[in-house]
Write a structure and sequence with these properties.
heterotrimer, A alpha/beta (about 450), B alpha+beta (about 130), C alpha/beta (about 500), A: about 450 residues, alpha/beta, Aspartate Aminotransferase, domain 1, Aspartate Aminotransferase, domain 2, 2 domains, seven-stranded mixed beta sheet, 12 helices, 15 strands, C: about 500 residues, 16 helices, 12 strands
């Protein structure tokens, strides 16, 4: 029996101490008609050698960024993960520990979370960061709910240039608590206008760089929110914030984002890492855990989860969120990543992303395709193709290239458009090859 | 346990000091000792109308949150803003500097529904 | 785990920073340089992240790991958390590049292996739980609870009863995420008192049930580790007034392979793959909150539904009654890989042994301790036992003090003060992966501490004395809030 250490002798001795004849006796409370009488119809057990073989085979039935060249982004990026990240997060003391409710036994992790919070806040230019949310999408939804709690307003205004999946999650969360969502269009790649912002607007949400890779006018977005005292919420890419003036410096009230680019594998989209930051005046409303620095009774520095009365185990139905488990280990991965990179490494990743995407834009525009939107972009752009973008994607897949995301299913006006991302891991040679193969596919 | 005899009490551990038609409200020494170190007090806005028995706010310690209930009805005319930075006053001086609100009573007759110091002391010791 | 007090808490990483140090070996750009200001507009002035060399980085985190306690360090009997062994083979399979390097938005035909795995796991979980459909899109237990309630809400709305069914019933013994999740679905919460036997009283429940009730949330076995004998009747009562019944599956480790919540009458349930199915807790996450539902709730599943069409992997987006999406993509895929690996290690032949040995271990601990720290209910428990330290109150000793003293004996404390309805509760869940000697050592320690409580209570009050810090000033942590090094 894997992982279960008991021998027959163990069972005998233990049953004798308990005072029953068999383990079955311990299940006496379960009515007989609810007890399973036959083996379940699930696969047979595999020993470890065969188990690994089976999983190996399943993994090899997938094409991935490991054996194709990845130009697909849309919120999840093929970036370089330093070897130190895996080495740290696989340590059993981190990997197999529980939430640090017993701080004396968890100073290691608590200090790491404090360091993580500090770096995330610094990256976004904000005062307070929490210990993580599930992902960028739910972080955004929770930000909207938090805004509504702060100002008691019922309307959420969000740009259509925000990631479609994030907007879908927002719609679901808002429907669930009775908030209205109004979307503002972005037909030219950035948010068009803010006329829908009114006195009932709890918050205005934009993404920067947005889903199309384009840079939004954050000053304008903030001013629109301020006209009616709505909260200004930005969904920000953490790598871009290594170079760009961060949203905190534009006066954002809440900044959230997806931390997968910070040392976390794409992993078919999970686990991910939700980043959540806000101004210190709102700290009592923040969802999720937060770690603070303090001292023990002998004056030694220590770290502990704080502002606990916001959380579900204490506050129950009045908690700031129902979140319990978060993405702690992914936060640790991001901490190791940001430490390994340091200020210069982060800037270089961002800079290489920009250089690579400019080069790609020039090469791909030269194939008979068109760059769809004018304006500044960070590391991703929309390519308009003369034939159906889905067909382009399928054909390039056959040539070993993950070409990008066909946008038609998400934006009806962008049927022949492909969202192309070029991260720091792409080379000149790979970009040249993409252009060559694209030309082949289009001819 | 301190239970000043010149005050009136509610069964939910609030006290009232009457000054003319104003009721000054706080929580008792018993309540603060049960809570432990008070870290935050959530008080209503000035101008808010309260009904006797409704919650008017919360008092938080590190690991608990307790509702506080209006002992009388009326309009909130003042709240103790110093508690925002000095919540420990609720522990150190619950009947004095730890006061929470001043209410202009809508109906002084409601004071009959409160209990006196002896009765409150007895109910706590039970 | 004992460290001498003379060992200092490590410095913050920020204090180890030196300008120009580099901690990794970055990809080199081979495309032309660009004018960043011209390309991007306003740039930031400074990025105040630390600069640390690679070896120093590793030392920093290695030292931090020495100040942390995981399942691999020692016994971790946290009630309701199911801290069982996290098999290393699961880490190997979850690291296969054919999984880690998948992009969620690549064409579904290019991820046949991943879809096969997800469908395989879904099928196994359906069998284990007795539900008709499973979705892996929720990413944590509380998230799964909320997703179930959202589907219940959509179900009632589809029948024109969305506005009238405004309340969810939750036992007073329930985990805090239950009422919190209900509120996230716009519901009022009414608390049902648990009876003296630690179960739901049918007559009391009857008084609460009417057509304004959207759902009852029940944990089975309850948070007192007792099986709700009348569960079938409870589900029938709810269904008679048109309410749905949700099963909080946190305690599935007591039932795996022995009984199935789907057979109990529940309409939906959530699972914690990071409890019952061994995926690592990671210090607080990631979790993985699969949910199971009966067919009548199927139209409301979040999209896309991972399935097969004409034998080919397929993502079904055509879900007009879906509640929408609850997370970015399909859920915690790499955690699903781990859970799938775990379940195949047991297979049909072995899976029932999990609950059987979990229940054996918990009852053994309860039996060894019953004369020292009595159980809250004098009957056999399931996969965890709930003891009450109320008898020590007269010595001024509380459950917290006993827990802190356990740390000095080298054990992680059990859960304290939950469920809320048991005074001075200690909730101990050994799990099935602990051997008898470990359980004996733990019980011996608790017995020794019980004696200390009578003879030398100060040892408990000062505890823990063995760690790098003693009890922390949590009041100061709130009042002098410091959550960000750069703003401290």
């Amino acid at each position: 029996m894997p992982y279960i250490p008991h021998t027959d002798e163990d069972r005998r001795e233990m049953l004798a101490t308990i005072g029953v004849g068999s383990i079955d006796d311990l299940f006496a409370d379960i009515p007989d008609n609810l007890r399973l009488k036959t083996q379940l119809n699930i696969p047979s057990a595999l020993d470890e050698y065969r188990l690994y073989g089976h999983l190996f085979d399943l993994a090899h039935k997938n094409s991935s960024a490991a054996n194709t060249v990845c130009f697909l982004g849309a919120g999840i990026y093929d970036r370089y993960i330093p070897a130190t990240v895996g080495a740290v997060i696989s340590r059993g003391e981190f990997l197999t520990s529980y939430t640090p409710y017993q701080p004396e036994l968890s100073q290691g992790y608590l200090q790491a979370i404090y360091e993580f919070q500090s770096m995330v806040a610094a990256l976004y230019g904000m005062e307070v960061a929490n210990a993580s949310m599930y992902d960028g999408a739910t972080a955004m939804a929770e930000a909207a709910l938090m805004a509504s709690t702060i100002n008691n307003r019922k309307k959420v205004v969000v740009s259509q240039s925000v990631h479609p999946n994030y907007r879908a999650v927002l719609h679901t969360y808002c429907w669930s608590v009775g908030l209205n969502v109004e979307e503002i269009s972005a037909p030219d790649g950035t948010t068009e206008n803010y006329s829908k912002v009114d006195a009932d607007t709890a918050c205005v949400i934009v993404q920067n760089p947005n889903f199309f890779g384009s840079l939004e006018d954050l000053e304008r977005a903030r001013e629109a929110a301020r006209t009616t005292n709505a909260l200004f919420i930005v969904v920000a890419d953490p790598i871009a914030c290594a170079l760009l003036k961060p949203p905190g410096e534009y006066g954002a009230d809440i900044v959230v984002g997806e931390g997968q680019s910070l040392g976390i594998p794409m992993g078919m989209g999970g686990p991910l890492l939700g980043l959540f930051t806000c101004k210190s005046e709102h700290v009592r409303r923040i969802p999720g855990r937060i770690v603070g620095k303090t001292v023990d009774h002998d004056g030694r520095t220590g770290y502990v989860m704080t502002l606990r009365t916001r959380e579900q185990d204490i506050r129950r139905e009045k908690a700031t969120s129902n979140i319990c488990t978060n993405e702690a280990l992914m936060g640790l991965a991001a901490l190791v990543y940001m430490t390994a990179m340091g200020k210069n490494g982060m800037k270089r990743v961002a800079e290489t992303t920009v250089r690579n995407s400019r080069y790609a834009m020039a090469k791909l525009a030269d194939t008979g395709c068109k760059i769809k939107f004018g304006g500044k972009v960070f590391g991703e752009f929309v390519l308009e193709t003369p034939i159906d973008a889905t067909v382009v994607q399928v054909k390039l897949m056959q040539k070993g290239i993950l070409a990008g995301l066909p946008l038609g299913p998400f934006y009806p006006a962008l049927q022949n458009c492909l969202l192309v991302a070029v991260t720091e891991t792409r080379t000149r040679e790979q970009i040249d090859d993409y252009a060559v193969k694209l030309k082949e596919v289009l001819s | 346990m301190n239970v000043p005899s010149d005050l009136k009490y509610s069964k939910t551990h609030e006290w009232v000091r009457v000054e003319g038609d104003t009721a000054i409200v706080g929580i008792t020494d018993f309540a603060q000792s049960e809570l432990g170190d008070v870290v935050y007090v959530d008080l209503p806005e000035v101008g808010k109308t309260l009904k006797a028995g409704d919650t008017f706010g919360t008092v938080e310690s590190v690991k608990t949150v307790s509702d506080v209930y209006a002992p009388v009805s009326g309009e909130v005319i003042e709240v103790n803003e110093t508690l925002a930075n000095a919540s420990e006053k609720v522990n150190s001086d619950p009947f004095g500097e730890g006061w929470m609100l001043k209410v202009k009573m809508a109906d002084a007759g409601e004071l009959q529904n409160l209990i006196d110091a002896e009765a409150y002391k007895a109910s706590v010791e039970a | 785990m004992r460290r001498p007090k003379s060992v200092p808490v490590p410095e913050l990483i920020f204090k180890k920073s030196r300008p120009g140090r580099v901690g990794c070996n970055l990809p080199v750009a081979d495309t032309p340089e660009v004018d960043l200001q011209a390309e991007l507009g306003e740039l930031r002035d400074d990025l105040p992240l630390p600069e640390v060399a690679e070896l120093d980085l590793l030392r920093h985190f290695t030292h931090l790991s020495h100040l942390n306690y995981g399942i691999e360090t020692g016994f971790y009997p946290l009630g309701s958390c199911t801290m069982k062994y996290n098999p290393k083979i699961n880490e190997k399979t979850a690291s296969l590049t054919g999984f880690t390097h998948l992009h969620p938005m690549q064409p579904v035909s290019s991820m046949a292996g991943a879809v096969e795995l997800l469908l395989g796991l879904q099928d196994i979980l359906k069998e284990l739980t007795g539900f008709n459909e499973i979705t892996l899109q929720p990413v944590a237990g509380a998230h799964g609870e909320m997703t179930c309630l959202m589907m219940v809400k959509a179900y009632h709305e589809s029948r024109g009863e969305g506005a009238s069914r405004k309340t969810v019933l939750v036992p007073d013994s329930a985990h805090g995420t239950n009422p919190a999740s209900a509120v996230r679905c716009g519901y009022d919460v009414k608390s049902i008192p648990t009876n003296a036997e630690g179960l739901t009283d049918l007559q009391t429940l009857e008084n609460f049930l009417d057509s304004s009730i959207a759902a009852i949330m029940l944990t089975n076995p309850s948070t007192l580790a007792l099986f709700e004998k009348n569960i079938h009747e409870i589900c029938d009562m709810a269904h008679r007034v048109g309410a749905q019944v949700f099963c909080d599956g946190a305690n599935m480790n007591a039932m795996v392979g022995v009984t199935r919540p789907g057979d109990h009458g529940f309409d939906c349930m959530h699972l914690n793959l990071h409890k019952t199915f061994s995926t690592p807790h990671g210090g607080g996450g990631p979790g993985c909150g699969a949910i199971g539902i009966k067919s009548h709730l199927e139209p409301f599943l979040p999209y896309p539904v991972i399935t097969r069409k004409d034998g080919m992997p397929f993502k079904d987006y055509n879900r007009p009654q879906s509640i929408g999406k609850v997370s970015s993509f399909y859920g915690q895929f790499l955690m699903a890989v781990r859970a799938y690996t775990y379940l195949l290690a047991f297979g049909k032949e072995g899976v029932a042994q999990i609950a059987r040995h979990a229940v054996l271990n918990a009852n053994y601990v309860q039996a060894r301790l019953k004369d020292w720290i009595p159980p809250a209910h004098d009957r056999f428990c399931m996969h965890e036992c709930v003891l009450t330290a109320a008898k020590f109150k007269k010595q001024g000793i509380r459950a917290l003090d006993i827990s802190k003293r356990l740390i000095d004996y080298g054990f992680h404390p059990p859960t304290n003060y939950f469920p809320l309805i048991v005074p001075e509760a200690l909730m101990i869940e050994p799990t099935e992966t602990e051997c008898k000697e470990t359980l004996d050592a733990f019980c011996d320690a608790l017995i020794a501490i019980s004696k200390e409580a009578e003879e030398n209570p100060d040892l408990l009050h000062q505890a823990p004395a063995s760690q790098v810090v003693g009890r922390l000033d949590e009041t100061a942590a709130v009042k002098q809030l410091d959550v960000n090094y750069y703003k401290s």
